[in-house]
User: Which sequence fits this backbone?
């Protein structure tokens, strides 16, 4: 029994030593990163920063955190921000956000409110800290801008993980009960025929990049997109429904090419939204409506449509109907 107690005490002492060494290392690493960002011109202020959580956690806790990147012209401040990690798995961290935050851009200030917002991040256990998985969840989210607009959602779930191809990431967006801004809703639906709430937006995609998402990507510039695979996309807004699946390639000059299969419920209403949002003119909408009306006139469900959206040689077409120039990724 005595030997057992000695072993227990020795293990406790060793674990306590490991924790205090790990705490010091984490504090030093975080302080070094803050110093590097300040040297690069960032503004980073806080009223308190400490690492706590003995014996099983390394939790970094900030109070009155205020960060601003003058190059991107983006700032963020929050009264509380916690970065939580298990002491035996320090490359897996959980970020706990305050229910009231503020984001500053070059044009406006946005207040971000939620009943719960958490993020989980898993990095490769090396100095480059390549992202392996990310999950962000928020409930009762609302955005209030100094420019006068408001928006929000009942729930948001965003997740990514490394894909099979080098530098690729599988990305899923699942957003429910979205409240678009008044301006956006008016532009898309000036007659007010659609509900004020968008039921759901769901996107399951694989994004290809030309470089890894790691510490250097955040500090020096984001990798460029090289390909997009849409495994599943769904939009539900009142009587309107949109689903899509397909693949796109992005060239070095930002040209997008590929083919996406699109299924539309109440396609006439979707066309009206596209026209109202400026995707194409009223004359083009009339031509498309006539062509698609002829195609669906003899079907069992004339309000539903399934066609390929094709992007090639800088142009875009929906089935046999040309839509004009295809969008491009802008390269910096």
Assistant:
């Amino acid at each position: 029994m005595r030997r057992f107690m000695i072993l227990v005490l020795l293990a406790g002492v060793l674990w306590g030593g490991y924790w205090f060494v790990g705490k010091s290392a984490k504090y030093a690493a975080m302080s070094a990163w803050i110093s590097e960002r300040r040297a690069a011109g960032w503004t980073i202020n806080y009223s308190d920063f400490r690492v706590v959580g003995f014996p099983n956690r390394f939790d970094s806790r900030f109070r009155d955190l205020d960060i601003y990147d003058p190059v991107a012209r983006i700032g963020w401040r929050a009264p509380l921000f916690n970065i939580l990690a298990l002491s035996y798995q320090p490359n897996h961290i959980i970020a706990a956000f305050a229910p009231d935050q503020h984001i500053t851009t070059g044009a406006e200030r946005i207040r971000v409110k939620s009943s719960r917002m958490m993020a989980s991040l898993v990095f490769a256990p090396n100095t480059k800290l390549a992202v392996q998985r990310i999950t962000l969840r928020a409930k009762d989210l609302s955005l209030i801008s100094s420019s006068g607009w408001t928006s929000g959602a009942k729930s948001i779930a965003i997740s990514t993980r490394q894909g099979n191809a080098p530098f690729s990431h599988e990305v899923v967006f699942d957003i429910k009960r979205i409240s678009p801004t008044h301006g956006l809703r008016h532009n898309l639906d000036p007659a007010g025929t659609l509900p004020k709430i968008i039921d759901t937006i769901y996107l399951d995609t694989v994004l290809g990049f030309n470089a890894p998402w790691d510490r250097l990507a955040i500090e020096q510039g984001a990798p460029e997109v090289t390909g997009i695979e849409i495994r599943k996309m769904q939009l539900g807004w009142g009587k309107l429904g949109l689903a899509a699946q397909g693949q796109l390639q992005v060239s070095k000059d930002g040209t997008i090419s590929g083919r996406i299969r699109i299924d539309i419920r109440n396609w006439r209403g979707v066309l009206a939204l596209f026209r109202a949002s400026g995707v194409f003119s009223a004359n083009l909408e009339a031509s498309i409506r006539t062509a698609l009306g002829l195609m669906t006139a003899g079907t069992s469900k004339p309000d539903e449509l399934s066609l390929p959206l094709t992007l090639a040689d800088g142009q875009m077409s929906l089935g046999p109907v040309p839509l004009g120039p295809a969008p491009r990724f802008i390269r910096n």
